[in-house]
From TrEMBL:
Domain annotation Heterokaryon incompatibility: ranges: 49-194
Lineage top rank: taxon: Eukaryota
A Pfam family assignment: HET
Protein name, UniProt field: Heterokaryon incompatibility domain-containing protein
Species in which this protein is naturally found: Xylaria bambusicola
């Protein structure tokens, strides 16, 4: 279904192409996760990539740091550390691969978290990171980075009960919520950006 949405978007919205630049910010920090070779690699911000927007929460994060940078920048570096990576990030990587996309940007793993310069430069360009993304995954139902993405793994999507009320015999009224209503009631609503 999502692949069909993206195909429709590409066909119907040809004018919605990423900005080719020049950009007025330092982009030397920009790197993505290569979901095929499972490592973090520098890519041009004009590459086709997916972004993740989620709430870190209280779970133990797995971060790109100076001491693990060489391992995570090497082929299969993420595969070697797979069990340490929070569920939402693992689900995102699996989902992006399933969508046939190669790159995903996730702040915990694409900004060097113990390098104030790298992290600061990335934070200052956050609007551009999300603007340039092919699409953004919003982990709206999660309370932290270990909540996962409902529907990526078997048995993780709860079937929401549709609220109906019989107003006349045989005539039911259905309560419909807007996306704004749903997001406003989520933990995601309390994020800093996106």
């Amino acid at each position: 279904m999502i692949k069909n949405w993206l195909a429709t978007c590409e066909e119907e919205h040809k004018k919605c192409v990423p900005n080719e630049g020049p950009f007025n910010v330092d982009l030397s920090f920009f790197r993505c996760i290569d979901v095929e070779d499972m490592y973090i690699t520098p890519v041009p911000i004009t590459s086709q990539y997916v972004a993740l927007s989620y709430k870190w929460g209280d779970c133990t994060p797995f971060l790109l740091l100076k001491p693990n940078k060489d391992d995570l920048f090497a082929k299969d570096g993420l595969r070697r550390n797979w069990d340490s990576i929070p569920r939402t990030i693992r689900d995102t990587i699996d989902f992006v691969r399933g969508m046939g996309c190669r790159y995903v940007w996730i702040d915990q793993l694409c900004l060097i978290q113990d390098d104030d310069g790298d992290r600061g430069t990335g934070i200052n360009a956050m609007d551009l990171v999300y603007e340039q993304a092919y699409f953004t995954i919003i982990a709206g139902s999660g309370t932290d980075a270990d909540s996962g993405l409902p529907g990526v793994r078997e048995g993780t999507r709860s079937s929401a009960r549709q609220v109906t009320s019989e107003v006349l015999p045989g005539v039911n009224l259905v309560l419909r919520h807007t996306m704004e209503d749903i997001v406003a009631k989520s933990e995601y609503h309390h994020r800093g950006w996106t």
